[in-house]
Amino acid sequence: MEEEKRQTRILIAIALVFCALLIGYNAFYVPDASLESFVETDVSADGVDESQAESPGKINLNTASLEELDTLPGIGPAIAQRILDYREEYGGFTRVEELKEVKGIGDALFSQIQEDVTVDEPSESKRDGYVQ
């Protein structure tokens, strides 16, 4: 009986040491993160907003690949393929609002992506089905 109590006390002591080590480690652990990752905008000394310079340009609906379209918020591979099919069938987009004519893109989804896309108007000969 005395031996069991001694073994129990030893196990409790070992558990307490491990808990103390774990708590102590977490209390002083600092993740490797710089302050720059938490700053939304980074204005250089000359007053130029560098975060704007680093942002990628808008995606052109008439030249974008499936992978590029898939990066848009709310657009998956299926809708990206429908955009490509629409572009193929109608010879391209003449305005961004035409996206709403693609199945699966309603007003809510369109409002999410309209600032991320652009349209370079296709040539008239291509719109009519003739390729120069």
UniProtKB/TrEMBL annotation:
The keyword Membrane appears for this protein: yes
UniProtKB keywords: Membrane, Transmembrane, Transmembrane helix
Any one Pfam family match given in the protein's UniProt record, by short name: HHH_3
Gene3D superfamilies per record: Photosystem II 12 kDa extrinsic protein
Top-rank taxon, per record: Bacteria
Transmembrane segments: 12-30
Keyword match Transmembrane: yes
SUPFAM superfamilies: RuvA domain 2-like (SSF47781)
Span of domain Helix-hairpin-helix DNA-binding motif class: 67-86, 97-116
InterPro entries the record matches: Competence_ComEA_HhH, Endo/Exo/Phosphatase_dom_1, Hlx-hairpin-Hlx_DNA-bd_motif, RuvA_2-like
Name of protein: Helix-hairpin-helix domain-containing protein
Taxonomic lineage of the native organism: Bacteria, Bacillati, Bacillota, Clostridia, Eubacteriales
